[in-house]
């Protein structure tokens, strides 16, 4: 490294040295003269800038005006120009004031303990004491929180701690936290961190509302917020009501009253906060909470419904913080798994009516142009989609002037005026919406939620005749896929023809845009039409450019390559150039935008671009193969291609995190004939030990065992007997080894069959009879028995002889040796 680039550390000076160093007086700033002004004017340089360039000294800032007016307008100069110095952060980041440092340090320590207990449950041993300790800990934390709720919720470091604590609170604690917000709901939901706390509180408030309203079938049908007909309230609620009777003392509002207060606080600013980055998710979640029987996103963000509320960035941050949304007391507030929200969530009638109030308010205050601009906004588009869903649920979508009518630019009114009239011409807004990166999501919602007449008009106006081009568009292909899912058999076959007309569909494989192909396969499965299924399989063969190489369907589609490219990569030959797609079928601006977005996403996720010359399993290709396997008619070519591959290829698929799902689908789908499953069972015979020893292959082996019949289970188990020890010591294979119980199969096969297959041995009924206690016979009067005949006596003697011979034959040499030794011992004892 050159000497001039070496970074040297200066000598540190002591405080005493700094104090006695005389400070040089600042040089006087020379006053600019008229000549300088003329030179600056001629050169286009500001006089102050010219003076700085000549002297090297910055001019002092202009004096601030004295008095209250100057203090109120801090950061603004006399002439109105903005001061570049950053103002105080109190108003923007800490709207309720900064949190005390000691309280912040306390909550940091609390977070470490909550992380250890969150979702861990309470041990069986000393469960009562451990739960009591956790309850005391929670009580002390809540006492410290009292009076600082808003500061904690808006502090960057403690807001997550409050989110962790909320699931551990009972209904009373949640009401206390909600009541502490008071009139600050608008400020809280607009805040970057406070909005996330509000979302967690609202999600938990839905469960409290459900308990307060009771269950369906109650005798009381009133709509009062204070109605307690069979409602479930915490014990403190009744105690407080009893103390407050006859006094002026206030009571803690119920959850229904708190949600009403929240809604009333947000109503005046709804049009503004619908497009607010932080407040809009809270409003969307509020609409879900006000909808009865509507599943809510889980607090841990594991289900797909969370994308409707939280952004990807918010979900990534929450995942990085490790927020599980579980109680530290071991109480499971939410069901486990994705989409496991309990059915039948009730909402009080007066609270549910607030949803219509919200919709009426925004419809009255937002114009049609603003709705359309909101539909292409990154934040507002999700709110418009949810409001459309609410409108369809309320059966108001087909009315003139509805939100659906505004977004479709009068299409609903046109159909309402004359249902038999010709379709209107395509409008510019919707035409731009379907090819927009943000607007296409709104178009998907239109196709998914619109009534059947409106859907037919949208499809034949904006998609019919353009499917081949739109299917290859980087954004419009998703809208086409949603529309295909609602087509009938005739329209589906027409869509297949349009896609195949554009370069045979090969552009869909080369650009990895398979959403339309996947939607066509799933629609053919739902319709159950053999002609549609055959047409779809033919389209996929054409898109892969298979020709006469039908056996290459599965490996080529798994790698998502056309057959010429797949074969060139497999054999090491030169990869052929991509054939050009017609110029009229390519949107160059959209392609450039999609490429830039993909590049940025790869950079943000630290993910390298996949090399072009690899044949690794592809996610889109595997999903398409799984859908093809589930076809009731038309899946035979796919299955034949799969089992035409060598066992090593199938074993590689089983060990792949992507391709293993295809084998699971073959084993579990009812559309797959039994003979193909049998081929898969027998194909792995002799390789099951290798399969079970893999992290992902062991899961496929478990699926094989679960779906196999009794005969095939025994065949698989006997093939694994030589590898029993290796399998038992394997990190992953030991789980399958426990299920198979190979040692029992070796020693007692009959018991193994009874335990594993459910087949009982033909002598099992005798053992059961011996095990059962025989009841003592009741005393009865003596009966006269008939004397046995000569034939009966002869038959009895023959039976005894047969029994003696059988026992003698069953004895082996060892038994005879022990028997002879016992006889000799008896003889010696007699002699003595």
TrEMBL record:
Annotated Acidic residues bias: 68-81
UniProt entry keywords in alphabetical sequence: Repeat
GO BP of this protein: endonucleolytic cleavage in 5'-ETS of tricistronic rRNA transcript (SSU-rRNA, 5.8S rRNA, LSU-rRNA); endonucleolytic cleavage in ITS1 to separate SSU-rRNA from 5.8S rRNA and LSU-rRNA from tricistronic rRNA transcript (SSU-rRNA, 5.8S rRNA, LSU-rRNA); endonucleolytic cleavage to generate mature 5'-end of SSU-rRNA from (SSU-rRNA, 5.8S rRNA, LSU-rRNA); ribosomal small subunit export from nucleus
Classification via InterPro entries: ARM-like, ARM-type_fold, NOP9, Pumilio_RNA-bd_rpt
Gene3D superfamilies reported in the protein's UniProt record: Leucine-rich Repeat Variant
Comp. bias regions, Basic and acidic residues: 333-346, 784-798
GO cellular component, one term: nucleolus
Ranges of compositional bias, category Low complexity: 22-41
Molecular function via GO: RNA binding
The keyword Secreted is assigned to this record: no
Keyword Repeat among record annotations: yes
Residue ranges, annotated region (Disordered): 1-98, 316-346, 589-615, 765-832
PANTHER family named among the record's database cross-references: NUCLEOLAR PROTEIN 9
Protein name, per record: Nucleolar protein 9
Naturally occurring in which organism (per UniProt): Vanrija pseudolonga
């Amino acid at each position: 490294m050159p000497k001039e680039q070496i970074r040297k550390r200066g000598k540190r000076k002591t405080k005493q040295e700094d104090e006695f160093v005389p400070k040089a007086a600042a040089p006087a700033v020379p006053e600019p003269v008229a000549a300088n002004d003329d030179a600056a004017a001629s050169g286009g340089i500001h006089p102050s800038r010219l003076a700085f360039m000549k002297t090297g000294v910055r001019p002092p800032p202009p004096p601030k005006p004295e008095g209250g007016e100057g203090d109120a307008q801090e950061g603004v100069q006399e002439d109105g120009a903005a001061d570049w110095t950053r103002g105080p952060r109190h108003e923007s980041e800490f709207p309720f004031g900064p949190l005390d440092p000691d309280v912040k340090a306390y909550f940091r320590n609390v977070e470490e303990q909550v992380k250890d207990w969150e979702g861990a449950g309470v041990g069986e041993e000393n469960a009562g004491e451990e739960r009591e300790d956790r309850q005391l800990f929670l009580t002390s934390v809540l006492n410290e929180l009292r009076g600082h709720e808003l500061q904690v919720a808006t502090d960057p470091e403690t807001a997550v701690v409050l989110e962790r604590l909320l699931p551990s609170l009972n209904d009373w604690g949640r009401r206390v936290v909600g009541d502490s917000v008071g009139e600050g709901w608008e400020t809280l939901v607009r805040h970057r961190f406070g909005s996330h706390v509000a979302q967690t509180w609202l999600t938990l408030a839905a469960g409290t509302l459900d308990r307060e309203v009771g269950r369906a079938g109650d005798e009381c049908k009133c709509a009062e917020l204070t109605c307690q007909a069979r409602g479930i309230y915490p014990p403190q609620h009744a105690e407080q009501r009893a103390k407050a009777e006859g006094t002026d003392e206030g009571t803690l509002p119920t959850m229904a009253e708190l949600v009403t207060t929240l809604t009333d606080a947000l109503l005046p600013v709804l049009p503004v906060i619908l497009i607010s980055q932080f407040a809009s998710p809270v409003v969307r979640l509020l609409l879900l909470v006000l909808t009865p029987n509507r599943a809510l996103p889980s607090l841990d963000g594991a289900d797909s419904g969370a994308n409707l509320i939280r952004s990807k960035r918010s979900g990534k941050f929450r995942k990085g913080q490790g927020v599980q949304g579980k109680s530290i007391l071991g109480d499971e507030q939410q069901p486990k798994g994705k989409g496991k929200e309990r059915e039948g969530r009730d909402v009080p009638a007066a609270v549910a009516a607030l949803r219509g109030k919200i919709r009426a308010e925004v419809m009255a205050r937002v114009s049609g142009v603003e709705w359309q601009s909101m539909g292409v906004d990154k934040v507002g588009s999700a709110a418009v989609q949810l409001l459309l869903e609410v409108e369809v649920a309320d059966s108001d979508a087909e009315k003139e002037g509805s939100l659906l009518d505004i977004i479709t630019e009068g299409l609903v009114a046109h159909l309402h005026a004359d249902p038999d009239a010709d379709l209107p011409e395509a409008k510019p807004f919707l035409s731009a919406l379907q090819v927009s990166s943000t607007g296409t999501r709104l178009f998907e919602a239109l196709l998914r939620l619109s009534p059947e007449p409106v859907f037919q008009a949208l499809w034949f106006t904006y998609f019919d005749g353009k499917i081949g081009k739109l299917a290859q568009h980087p954004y419009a292909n998703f809208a086409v896929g949603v529309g295909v899912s609602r087509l009938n058999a005739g329209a589906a076959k027409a869509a297949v023809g349009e896609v195949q007309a554009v370069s045979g569909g090969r552009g869909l494989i080369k650009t990895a845009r398979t959403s339309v192909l996947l939607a066509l396969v799933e629609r053919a499965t739902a319709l159950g039409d053999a002609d549609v299924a055959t047409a779809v399989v033919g389209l996929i063969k054409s898109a892969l450019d298979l020709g006469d190489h039908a056996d290459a369907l599965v490996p080529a589609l798994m790698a998502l390559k056309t057959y010429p490219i797949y074969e060139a990569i497999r054999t090491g030959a030169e990869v052929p150039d991509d054939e050009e797609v017609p110029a009229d079928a390519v949107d160059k601006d959209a392609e450039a935008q999609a490429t830039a977005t993909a590049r940025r996403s790869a950079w943000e996720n630290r993910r390298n671009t996949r090399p072009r010359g690899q044949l690794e399993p592809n996610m889109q290709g595997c999903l398409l193969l799984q859908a093809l396997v589930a076809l009731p008619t038309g899946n035979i070519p796919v299955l034949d291609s799969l089992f035409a591959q060598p066992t090593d290829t199938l074993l590689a698929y089983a060990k792949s995190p992507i391709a293993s799902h295809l084998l699971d689908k073959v084993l579990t789908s009812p559309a797959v004939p039994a003979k193909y499953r049998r081929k898969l069972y027998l194909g792995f015979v002799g390789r099951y030990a290798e399969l079970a020893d893999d992290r992902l292959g062991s899961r496929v082996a478990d699926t094989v065992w679960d779906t196999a019949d009794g005969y095939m289970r025994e065949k698989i188990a006997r093939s694994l007997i030589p590898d029993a020890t290796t399998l038992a010591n394997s990190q992953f294979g030991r789980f399958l080894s426990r299920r198979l119980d190979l040692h029992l199969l070796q020693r007692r096969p009959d018991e193994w069959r009874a335990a594993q297959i459910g087949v009982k041995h033909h002598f099992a009924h005798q053992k059961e009879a011996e095990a059962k206690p025989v009841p003592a016979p009741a005393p009865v009067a003596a009966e006269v028995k008939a004397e046995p005949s000569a034939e009966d006596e002869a038959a009895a003697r023959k039976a005894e002889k047969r029994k003696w011979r059988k026992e003698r034959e069953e004895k082996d040499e060892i038994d005879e040796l022990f028997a002879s030794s016992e006889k000799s011992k008896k003889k010696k004892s007699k002699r003595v």
